[in-house]
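for the recovery benchmark. tokens below, seq after
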């Protein structure tokens, strides 16, 4: 029994020593890895400050070319910018060097990250920050804004009334309900200034998901018979018969209108806030889905039915569109040049009128 006890004690002591050695090894490895990361951070710091200096010099050169500065004034500003960036490098490298010395001097896993300012939360923008209004992340990723930003992007949302122009018929005689037939559009658009020194004309392009709805009137519903689609009376009390056509399109517009130039020391921007804008263009894309939704009553019982099929709608869609806007709100019109239903005896073209919001 004593022999067994001695063996167990010796085994426990051996495992304890091995565990302690392993812990020391892990701590040393952790410290070594942190030192390597800090050495890389020193390289990043120098690269960041050089990039910032390059942008400042670029801004000074632009002002010099425009005659806003003399050669002497430009040289003075460049020297001041270079001095500031050199001091920034010196101070930031000193902070990193101190962290490295702390890790070298302490065998344990010294927590130098506690209270570290690399991770920041910023609301609002500054001359040396990115253009994101809200930023959460590593400070080195919060890069300064560009001197001249010719391309911006925004979220596009539109909705309103939808109907169809039928060959040989007036819009007033449409078999589709005006109030119940609606469209919805959602997408993303980029806007690029066409001319270098003027913002009067912009090219706007992107992608959108358009959903065009047509609600049949007079207790009728859509029927597909081979390659023909037509309206037919429903055998029961029909509450709703709505055809929804979903298209993925790629709109392109030329946008015109005045803008205000905002100039700062390190950058400039053109703003169209509270300005009148007109956009003219078109779109092209393809059908991604068609379905009919029916709601009806049979012997006092309510029923719902969804029919997913092509209904002979056009696979490729294209059309013209335009908008009149003040600030981010616009009156929006789009018209499909492609027929709603392909290979039909009577041609129908979708038309939509509503509001469009371009949210920066």
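predicted aa per position
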């Amino acid at each position: 029994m004593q022999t067994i006890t001695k063996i167990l004690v010796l085994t426990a002591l051996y495992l304890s020593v091995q565990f302690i050695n392993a812990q020391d090894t892990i701590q040393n490895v952790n410290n070594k890895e942190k030192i390597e990361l800090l050495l890389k951070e020193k390289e990043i710091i120098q690269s960041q400050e050089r990039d910032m200096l390059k942008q400042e010099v670029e801004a000074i050169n632009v002002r010099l070319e425009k005659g806003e500065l003399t050669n002497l004034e430009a040289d003075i500003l460049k020297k001041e910018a270079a001095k500031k960036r050199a001091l920034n490098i010196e101070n930031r490298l000193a902070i990193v060097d101190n962290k490295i010395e702390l890790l070298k001097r302490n065998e344990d896993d010294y927590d130098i990250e506690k209270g570290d300012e690399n991770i920041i939360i910023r609301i609002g923008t500054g001359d040396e920050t990115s253009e994101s209004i809200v930023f959460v992340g590593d400070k080195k990723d919060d890069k300064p804004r560009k001197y001249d930003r010719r391309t911006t992007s925004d979220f596009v949302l539109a909705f309103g009334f939808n109907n169809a122009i039928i060959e040989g018929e007036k819009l007033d005689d449409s078999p589709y309900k005006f109030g119940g037939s609606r469209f919805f559009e959602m997408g993303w658009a980029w806007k690029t200034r066409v001319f270098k020194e003027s913002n009067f004309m912009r090219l706007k392009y992107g992608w959108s998901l358009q959903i065009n709805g047509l609600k049949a009137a007079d207790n009728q519903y859509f029927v597909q018979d081979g390659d023909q689609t037509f309206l037919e009376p429903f055998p029961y009390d029909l509450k709703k018969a709505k055809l929804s056509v979903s298209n993925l399109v790629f709109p392109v517009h030329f946008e015109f209108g005045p803008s205000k130039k905002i100039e700062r020391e390190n950058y400039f921007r053109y703003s169209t806030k509270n300005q009148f804008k007109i956009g003219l263009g078109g779109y092209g894309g393809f059908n991604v889905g068609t379905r009919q939704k029916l709601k009806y009553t049979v012997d006092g019982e309510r029923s719902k039915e969804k029919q997913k099929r092509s209904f002979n709608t056009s696979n490729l869609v294209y059309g013209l569109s335009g908008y009149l806007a003040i600030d981010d709100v616009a009156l929006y019109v789009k018209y499909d040049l492609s027929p709603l239903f392909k290979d039909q005896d009577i041609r129908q073209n979708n038309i939509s009128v509503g509001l469009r919001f371009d949210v920066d």
